[in-house]
Amino acid sequence: MKITQLPDAEPRPRRVAVGTFDGVHRGHREVIEGADTVLTFEPHPVSVISPGNEPKLLTTLQRKAELVATLGVRELVVIPFDREFASRSAQEFIEDVLVARLGATHVSVGENFHFGNRAQGDAALLGADSRFETRVAPLLEIDGEIVSSSHIRGLVAGGALEYAGTLLGTPFVLDGTVSHGDRRGRTLGYPTANLVPQEGYATPGHGVYAGRAQTEDGRWHAAAVNVGVRPMFESGLGELIEAYLLDFEGDLYDQLLRIEFLKRLRGEKRFTSVDVLLEQMALDVEATRMVAGLP
């Protein structure tokens, strides 16, 4: 799939799905279905329109592109969103972006999509334009609740990663570079790969999770993942994401690591002794092996 900045997009007949698409969840996929082009915004519009009120994002632009590519989309067009672009009227968005720049023949949006200065544009305005066909995807409901990025962010923050994955359509993922810690896990017999939570992005609530980790060589490993501050030890390192890769031997420092969160096993807690902690860690590892479905 081709990734294009809006100013570099060459006009051609396009079937365009428009939206922020943070998480590319199952509701977003309904909007994108049948489109050959996805038009999105970077950074998140709220970070420009109302700085300080932007949400914790579920996906980086790179991860968003990966997910969109799995849907058979030909091109991801990225709007470099800034104050100047935010000042454009809804009609200017239609004229300058959808028609002149992209050559849209079909436009697909979610029923709650708004665009243009002061969010005055909506699906009805698009539908009134005869130059392209407008498709409005209804909000998707699962288990009686609307599937939305904000709802999924709440699930992630609350540790409900299994259900978050159901609504996303794929496990929640964090990517990062393995950093040096205090090597406490190594002394306990459970060496961990440590990631520092990325500013501005959603992080699972404190606790222990069963997941999978992908190393730079592309291999997947079952991984018991702790998110938190390690209440048993005074590390001074702040919040960390610590992944113990089962049956893995090697050095991961400064390498890229992808973690898929599958299921929360328990909350973070302080144990009465290191021996009790080690007993619990052994149980966490076995539970992880069962959930991850990997050797």
Summary, kept brief:
This protein has helices at 26-32, 45-49, 61-69, 83-86, 90-101, 123-127, 149-157, 161-168, 184-188, 274-292, and strands at 2-5, 14-18, 37-42, 75-80, 104-110, 133-137, 141-142, 145-146, 172-177, 193-195, 207-214, 220-228, 240-245, 256-266. It has 295 residues and is an alpha/beta fold. The longest helix is centred in the last third of the chain and has 19 residues, at 274-292.
How would you describe this structure to a colleague?
The chain is α/β, with parallel strands linked by helices. The protein folds into two domains: 145 residues, Rossmann fold (3-Layer(aba) Sandwich), CATH 3.40.50; 121 residues, Beta Barrel (Elongation Factor Tu (Ef-tu), domain 3), CATH 2.40.30.30. 28% of the residues lie in helices and 27% in strands. It is built from ten helices and 14 strands. Strands 1-4-3-2-5-6 form a six-stranded parallel β-sheet, sandwiched between helices. A six-stranded antiparallel β-sheet has the order 9-14-11-12-13-10. Strand 11 and strand 12 form a beta hairpin. Helix 7 packs antiparallel against helix 8. The chain is elongated and about 70 Å long. The mean pLDDT is 94.
